[in-house]
Amino acid sequence: MTDQYLVTLTVNGEDHELLVTARRTLVDALRHDLHLTGTHVGCEHGVCGACTILVDGAPARACLMFAVQAEGRDLRTVESLGSPDSPNDLQRAFSEHHALQCGFCTPGFLMLAEGFLASRPRATKAEIREAVSANLCRCTGYQTIVEAVDDCASRRRCAPDTTEGEATPEPGQNDTPRPA
Ligand code: FES
Ligand code: FES
């Protein structure tokens, strides 16, 4: 019989206790154990980015992590952004710019962009293009995805600032790591 481990995963602000085998991937735990099926699985090799979530605020490939490695980390999936009835501003921008066709890659792009904009709110279009190149889209093309992320970033910059003391990155400084 395969050994199982009790882990607590903190997902979208809620703690979940799970019994998992050591080799249970994080993406399988999210989808099959917690029924958070918004996170998609494509290549399972860390290439396509369909499984991108935020781990401690940074984009990461959930297919490359084991569930046991995620204990104590702050996990955010696409379900944290909004709902069909109440999409967040990034999701609305994707819709307005037609930044998806089949939508399979979209949850990964949304979480990649959400993490990127959180750390690089003043990113240039070229930096956005570089950031979204980490994920693969087979049917939309990248232009509308770049337009959507750029539009969302512009609108967020124009919105009233509710944060205090947040450091403003230097122009051209891109310190966002590529997803693991
Ligand atoms: S499923 Fe392709 S990178 Fe994870
Ligand atoms: S919208 Fe179909 S793969 Fe990206």
From TrEMBL:
CDD domains: fer2
Metabolic or biological pathway: Alkaloid degradation; nicotine degradation
Record region (Disordered): 157-180
Residue stretches of biased makeup (Polar residues): 171-180
The keyword Secreted is annotated on this UniProt entry: no
GO molecular function, one term: metal ion binding
Domain 2Fe-2S ferredoxin-type: 5-81
Keyword vocabulary terms for this entry: 2Fe-2S, Iron, Iron-sulfur, Metal-binding, Oxidoreductase
UniProt cross-references to SUPFAM superfamilies, sorted A to Z: 2Fe-2S ferredoxin-like, CO dehydrogenase ISP C-domain like
Record-given protein name: (2Fe-2S)-binding protein
Organism whose genome encodes this protein: Halostreptopolyspora alba
Source organism phylogeny: Bacteria, Bacillati, Actinomycetota, Actinomycetes, Streptosporangiales
